[in-house]
Design brief:
The protein has helices at about 10-25, 30-50, 85-95, 100-115, 195-205, 230-240, 280-290, 375-380, 380-405, 410-430, 435, 455-460, 475-480, 485-490, 505-510, 535-555, 585-594, and strands at about 5-10, 65-70, 75-80, 135-145, 150-155, 160-165, 180-185, 215-225, 250-260, 300-305, 310-315, 335-340, 340-345, 360-365, 440-445, 450-455, 470, 495-500, 510-515, 515-520. The protein has about 600 residues and is of the alpha+beta class. It binds adenosine-5'-diphosphate (ADP) and magnesium ion. Keywords: ATP-binding, Chaperone, Nucleotide-binding.
Length: about 600
Amino acid sequence: SAPSERYEYQAEVSRLMDLIVNSLYSNKEVFLRELISNASDALDKLRFLSVTEPDLLKDAVDFDIRIQADKDNGVITLTDTGIGMTRQELVDCLGTIAQSGTAKFLKALKDSKDAGGDNNLIGQFGVGFYSAFLVADKVTVSTKSPKSDKQYVWEGEANASSYTIREETDPEKLIPRGTRLTLHLKRDDKGFAHPERIEKLVKNYSQFVSFPIYTWQEKGYTKEVEVDEDPAEAKKDEEDGKTEKKKKKTKTVVERYWDWELINETQPIWLRNPKEVSKEDYNEFYKKTFNEYLDPLASSHFTTEGEVEFRSILYVPAFAPTGKDDIINPKTKNIRLYVKRVFISDDFDGELFPRYLSFVKGVVDSNDLPLNVSREILQESRVVRIMRKRLVRKAFDMILGISMSDNREDYEKFWENFGKHLKLGCIEDRENHKRIAPLLRFFSSQSEEELISLDEYVENMKPDQKDIYYIAADSVNSAKNTPFLERLAEKDLEVLFLVDPIDEVSIQNLKSYKEKNFVDISKEDLDLGDKNEEREKEMKQEFGQTCDWIKKHLGDKVASVQISNRLSSSPCVLVSGKFGWSANMERLMKAQSM
Ligand code: ADP
Ligand code: MG
């Protein structure tokens, strides 16, 4: 064969390889994602360049990726029909750190180490070609660029400071175009060389790469074959003169053979035109992707254009997960981020989607993020901030859609499962108060068993009513029986019953709805606009001494004892100070400090 030339790696490359092997040892499987994404990039590049240089496609082969696992020898080969590399490109791309991905990996890795970061995070990086050495102790890259007549072979070994390049001369190994990687797996990693294992990894990481991915798989079919008769019996039959009449014996056997099997869907559902995707398709995708077995309550498929471009499908599940409180658990893996259809991560903590909306599930695919996007990048990226904003807006549109559906039960179901999340949103997300508030639901003094919206409350307001009244209590029943209600009931004013412990804090965060303030009817300064100062004065004179007497006996237990116009049939009531906690809050605080 042709003589091979030996090259030294650029110093940074050796360092990078050490780092990758040392930091990703527990996450080795990412190598396949990286190599498939390179193959997909190479196909993308060819597709792009061939638009202006159709000559590049003179070797008419399909655009695809093929993976062959040889478990007996512990070898994986991965072949693409992409742009390939010339000799010079091999040196530039696989001997030095390209400007792309890998250099940033180094920086981010350093940053994360400096910040005492966890190693797990590194699994999310696009660590690139050298991740092949996570599982292989020898890697061969045989590649043919359509720009060159020759095919070259790059060969490198784990823990080496140099690699070799030679021309491919073995006619059996020539390929028309593209790149064939051969990984000679390390002894402990030979388990990766199983078609089923490969298929599983592809389904997890690269299911939606837009080029077909095939694996070489063993298949079988059954057929009936004729079997020779037992010679002794045949002889006997002959003697009996039965040969002609007797039917031949058959048996069923399984024929084994090997063939390429397509293992990905080349057109991810989110890239399709929403008009051409059925509800069943969306539901199926949801169940498959998020391991759910019930259909979602709603879905929303959209593309955003302009400043930042991405596609997404969001879902509202039918039920909240039981058994664990996912408001508190931020790691719900609810959003799967793809960059150019390559799965990047589903391990976020509020970067892409606020925590209080973590019940919403979905996929997001962006062309504007780098493949090696890290948590640091996510936190700092302007692109991500814009994406987050749009995703949140779309999520609220979707929820609003449920609330406006003809089927009132749908929203009741939603509220029962996820109402708490929205209430948390009132506290955590000031910016979206306008979107959250119309979705809230409460019992009220006039709604009987039904929950009402703030819009329904406002519609039902008296012409001269300025505020939205509420009372916090531990149940609808105790709210109904509170003496504070008396005067409002007399005036036919509706009062919201805040019976969930979080309700009161949420309402206090909202402060107002449609320019109407929320007013706690148990507070001292409640003004119903019906003051009669003359009568108040008379009353004060008449009962002033009684008040003093009561105050003297109660001492420090109350701040003051006053004449009030707030009651109509009860003789007295305990109220909270204007700046104090409401009775309900006090109960909450007490419960928490225990
Ligand atoms: P990145 O993909 O971020 O550029 P990698 O380390 O994964 O970094 O790859 C380095 C470079 O090697 C790529 O940019 C590309 O030029 C080249 N390369 C890797 N794999 C292939 C391939 N299958 N076909 C053509 N070029 C490739
Ligand atoms: Mg890459």
